[in-house]
Amino acid sequence: MPFTPSQAPEMTDRILTDLDFDSLGLHPSLTQGLRDSGFSRLTPIQALTLPETLQAQDVAGQAQTGTGKTAAFLVTVMQRLLTRPARNDRRIEDPRSVILAPTRELAIQIHKDAMVMAGPTGLRIGLVYGGIDYEKQRAQFAEGVDVLIGTPGRLIDYFKQHVFSLRSVEVVVLDEADRMFDLGFIKDIRFLLRKMPPPGERQGLLFSATLSFRVLELAYEHMNNPKTLKVETESVTTARVVQRVFFPASDEKLPLLLGLLARMDPQRSIVFVNTKFAAEQVHARLEKHGFPAAILSGDVPQAKRQQLLGRFQKGEVAILVATDVAARGLHIPDVSHVFNFDLPQDSEDYVHRIGRTARFDASGDAISFACERYAIGLPDIEAFIGQRIPVESISADILADVAPLRMYRPRREGDRGRPGDRSSRGGPSRGGPSSGRGGPSRSGSGGSSRSAGGSRGSGGSDRSASERTEPSSAAAAPAPAATAADATPTDAAAAAKRPRRRRSGAAKAKAAEGAAAPSAEPQSP
Predict the structure, then answer these.
(1) Nearest Cα to Cα of residue 69 among 205, 189, 161, 178
(2) What is the 3-state secondary structure (H, E, C) of 446-493?
(3) CA-CA to 362 of 20 to 30 Å: which in 144, 283, 333, 496?
(4) What is the pTM of this model?
(5) Domain over 5-230 is classified CATH 3.40.50.300
(6) Could you say which architecture CATH assigns to the domain 241-385?
């Protein structure tokens, strides 16, 4: 039966329950692994799901970020593999369990936790993800893999090369399934699930901080009658995070960030931005003004990304500038402050961003900047988390005396001008008596003075007077053709300045015909 708040009210307000792992009857080697990992008592999501999952029940679990979801499914996976025999036709390279993560950082973190927990058990843990060590990761299958952790793309790559098969999978785990949708991995997930034994012959687990309708649809499509278990709380975000929002202009965001960093002196902070370009700009300015920082975005090579995360975790740099690629799965201890330099455009991303602080009974601060570009998303965020974020005022003494951050790329040599800048395109500029609209200025109230072969403006083609004037009768005489001698010096100068325009074939024929026709006026001697 699904969990309801009335069944376990003591789980909603505390980070740990009165239950301990020794009461679950786990395999002795797994119990030792939990001790090595520092686990003793269960968190609410663990106490809620483990009694079900240890009985081979499929579960979709939801709880706030940083509450022990990873340990919940790792305990389930390892207990099953330690207490049940593998399939008779299983090859050594075929995994018995697959854990799918949406990002490389999350996959690496799960693998790190699993290696400590599985140490005394003898289970072989594999890790695959894109961007690095292709042959090295492939070689681990020859030594055997019991639990395979990875991202969908690299898993499918090896699978299609027949490096391993999925016929022997007994437990499949989807971690942060809502993020799978956001990153466009759902087709890949469905492909992998269809290559595994049917839901009735394997166990399925799904864990996330948010369970949307599309995630639940995926669960019911590819899982065996799963139970939806949620740790009910009064708010989506934990009360241990002190949330605040400022309303700066875009030009005030960098001075405000530097001023707050100088005042607060945070030991370990993450500054979130929405784009890679913004991350580069903010990182450069932080370094320039004496705040050592690391940058984490999608374009950073994987080896360098792991190196930067290691420096941040060790405290070698106090500030990490990141896009949402780092918003999930990073279990970095003692993050004191999270700055939303750019307010996220997705309400769920806000929850995951501020969840990087106040983890495992700690406290932290989440400070957001709602500028004119991103403030439109604030009402949706407040509706999603079910509370109003307190507003802080900006005083002049908070703002650092630095130049504002200009969030546009500098123009390079050879770039075309901005729309409307006609001079940058080499064409005539608008306005002015000499340029006009392709000819001399209009005069008089009822007509216009033009040269005999004048132009109708920038948008039309040059036509002779006979083309523009309809004859009043069949006997109407053709208009005289203009000659170079008829043109005044002013007309000649204006014509020389005018850009040459192409004439249609009909116009050229008419002009030639007019030039060949005899003049109707008598010639002077």
Answers:
(1) 205
(2) CCCCCCCCCCCCCCCCCCCHHHHCCCCCCCCCCCCCCCHHHCCHHHHH
(3) 283
(4) 0.61
(5) yes
(6) 3-Layer(aba) Sandwich (3.40)
